[in-house]
Write a structure and sequence with these properties.
Helix 1 links the parallel strand 1 and strand 2. It is globular and about 80 Å long. The chain starts with a strand and ends with a strand. Helix 4 runs antiparallel to helix 5, helix 7 crosses helix 8 and helix 12 packs antiparallel against helix 13. It has a 9-stranded antiparallel beta sheet. It has an 8-stranded antiparallel barrel with strand order 27-28-29-30-31-32-33-34. Strands 3-2-1-4-5 form a 5-stranded parallel beta sheet. By secondary structure, it is of the alpha+beta class. The protein is built from 17 helices and 42 strands.
Length: about 675
């Protein structure tokens, strides 16, 4: 085994690799850009080397700078993580030429599987089931339309060198094929420096299920079960689990054996993932092979008890795999939720800024459940525009799927993030959906379940009543106002509370006794036991036997309470004050319908209109690139463009004006 390892990456995956390296007694070297000077992976490593400017092409994508860092520190091996140079054969070859070990597969395997067109041909020759499609290169948008028509809509337009959801579009008609080809080609050129595009049939009601493979340089290869990755947004995975709730043992074995056959066909050695699309009848088709560690590898680790990073390091050091296929046993169920800096209330647009609060749930491990949080950030750190918006990967394990989901729901309730927009409420909402709990998943899940976008979870009446009861008790505890009981010198807070949530109203008479609260109301009485003191941001309350963990922030005359995907603004008032509230004037929000505002921090790629143009509902107006993804902004109604306020190349902040409109 080598003694010093350089991690050619950043964020949570760099921290993850450092953790295992330290366990094995291997010294670690971090590399960092200008934007990452104070990053967590820099703090955790034994050494750190600055390799350039904030843009990835000036730092994390610079092969020469990373090799120079190896020479400077004496690092004998490099782990690439995922993204950046992890699947770049030129990087692996350059390391080999420099006498540095690449913790990953051979160069030829990366080359063969890195090109999606070539990989599908190899897969077919190896006996792996493949999706019907056009594997040749496509010259222009019109040829894309012709090919899509021949295959039959819907089709998936993909960048040959793509990954991470970039350079991918679904087209349902000719217009979608033209726009999808242009956008995929542009994103591919920007993200990968390779704008080659291919088209394949899009399978309806599809599931995205992948097989984890592992091979060494001694001819041993095996698979470690599957991961269900169907819940995706813009082709980017959001929630994963292992095993899949859909596969039977026969399908699992067949997929695993085909994945191993493909690995053997390309002389694979290291950890890798073979991705499949699976239809409603459990027919499966090869999508691609990722020749690296996957983002979602923790769920496989949790159900197998294996450390994939450790096995990668051992294989890279020339060791044999310490297990055979017969030794692989899948135990229990694991869920992973990807916490992103993106605002689900604004169509999941990226968010940047400082983490004014970052307090993940406590990591735990027992026979009943496991909570694991892989992260690369800390409270006070910044989410940058230069890199992937991932904040953390929260994972839970339990003996069965229902228990793993409930453990995840509780862990999400206890996860505190402030300072940036984030998708915690969305993740919590999915955990509570009946369809998810039943395992009825497809890659269209988010679009199908949230056709009008995400607006928060709707809690049932009983749950809302229990939260209102907690709010009344919390207000009673912190309220210093009150009255003197007749004939007594004791100062007693007013015991009546009205709790308001929109048009809803609850009214309670509160009595506190020995850390218990008895609430009397029109429906009878309620017992509330709570672990919460003024200033606490997490409350644990038992209301008539039902246990809730809530995020609580004090507001004027009440609380903001977030629970299971719902974001509630509750007012807690004396009843006579609540009676007068409807008489208070309501502030009218400004009309912004005459402006096109930038929905996220980003750079203007293109403006598609000029002053004086008449635009129609749904017409593309501009393209904004944020975190390597191109976002098309479209008109919401018919109007005339009165003024174009920015030019292509401009870097904009959230809500900065792009266009002004006037009525036609």
């Amino acid at each position: 085994m080598f003694s010093k390892l350089l991690i050619a990456n950043r964020g949570e995956i760099a921290c993850r690799v450092i953790k295992t390296a330290k366990k094995l007694g291997i010294k670690t070297v971090a590399v960092y850009s200008d934007a990452d000077r104070e990053a967590l992976h820099v703090r955790l490593a034994d050494e750190a080397v600055h390799i350039g400017g904030s843009p990835a092409k000036e730092s994390y994508l610079s092969i020469d700078k990373i090799i120079a860092a190896c020479r400077e520190t004496g690092a004998e091996a490099v782990h690439p993580g995922y993204g950046f140079l992890s699947e770049n054969p030129a990087f692996a070859a350059a390391l080999a030429d420099a006498g540095i070990i690449f913790v990953g597969p051979p160069v030829k395997a990366i080359e063969a599987m890195g090109d999606k067109i070539t990989s599908k041909k190899i897969a077919a020759e190896a006996g792996v089931s493949t999706v019907p499609g056009h594997m040749g290169l496509i010259a222009d948008a019109e040829e894309a339309v012709k090919i899509a028509t021949q295959i039959g809509y819907p089709v998936m337009i993909k960048a040959s060198a793509g990954g991470g959801g970039k350079g991918m579009r679904i087209a349902w008609n000719d217009a979608g094929a033209r726009e999808g080809f242009e956008r995929s080609k542009s994103e591919a050129a920007s993200s990968f420096g390779d704008d080659r595009i291919f088209i394949e049939k899009f399978v309806t009601e599809p599931r995205h299920i992948e097989i984890q493979v592992l091979a060494d340089t001694h001819g041993n290869a095996l698979y470690l079960g599957e991961r269900e990755c169907s819940i995706q947004r813009r082709n980017q995975k959001v929630i994963e689990e292992a095993p899949s709730p859909f596969l039977d043992e026969a399908t699992r074995r067949s997929m695993g054996e085909q994945a191993v056959a493909l690995a053997r066909a390309v002389g694979y050695a290291s950890a890798g993932t073979v991705e499949f699309i699976v239809d409603k009848d459990r027919n499966f088709y090869f999508l691609e092979m990722n020749t690296r560690l996957q983002v979602e590898h923790p769920v496989t680790e949790l159900i197998t008890g294996l450390d994939l990073v450790e096995l990668m390091l051992r294989v890279a050091a020339g060791e044999k795999l310490p297990l055979t296929q017969a030794d692989v046993k899948l135990k229990g169920w694991a869920i992973e939720s990807r916490l992103y800096a993106e605002d689900p209330y604004r169509n999941f647009l990226p968010s940047v800024g400082r983490l004014t609060r970052y307090r993940p749930p406590e990591e735990e491990s027992s026979a009943a459940f496991v909570v694991r949080n892989d992260t690369g950030v800390y409270e006070g750190g910044e989410i940058s525009t230069f890199y992937d918006p991932m904040i953390a990967k929260l994972c839970t394990w339990a003996p069965d799927r229902a228990a793993a989901i409930e453990a995840m729901a509780v862990a999400l309730d206890e996860f505190e993030v402030e300072g940036v927009g984030h998708n915690l409420p969305f993740l919590s909402t999915v955990m509570g959906q009946q369809r998810f709990r039943e395992g009825r998943l497809t890659t269209g899940y988010i679009a199908e379940e949230f056709p009008e976008g995400f607006h928060g979870a709707d809690l049932d009446d009983q749950t809302l009543g229990e939260i209102a009861a907690f709010a009344a008790c919390a207000a009673y505890r912190i309220d210093g106002r009150g009255f003197l009981d007749a004939g007594s010198d004791e100062y007693i807070p007013s015991h009546q509370r009205a709790v308001l949530l929109g048009e809803r109203r609850w009214q309670f008479d509160v009595t506190e006794k020995d850390e218990e609260f008895w609430l009397y109301h029109s429906g009878g009485r309620t017992l509330v036991e709570m672990r919460w003191e003024p200033g606490d941001t997490i409350a644990r309350a038992r209301v008539d036997g039902s246990v809730h963990r809530m995020k609580v922030d004090r507001r004027t005359s009440g609380f903001r309470i977030r629970y299971r995907g719902a974001d509630l603004d509750l007012k807690v008032l004396l009843p006579r004050v609540a009676d007068l509230l409807p008489l208070m004037p309501v502030k009218v929000l400004p009309d912004l319908s005459k402006f096109l505002l930038c929905p996220m921090p980003g750079q203007v790629v293109r403006i598609d209109v000029v002053e004086g143009d008449i635009v129609e509902d749904g017409q593309p107006l501009a393209i904004i690139e944020a975190m390597k993804m191109e976002n098309v902004l479209k008109a919401e109604k018919r109007a005339r463009v009165a003024k174009v306020r920015v030019k292509p190349g401009a870097v904009l902040a959230v809500d900065e004006v792009i266009l002004e409109f006037e009525e036609v």
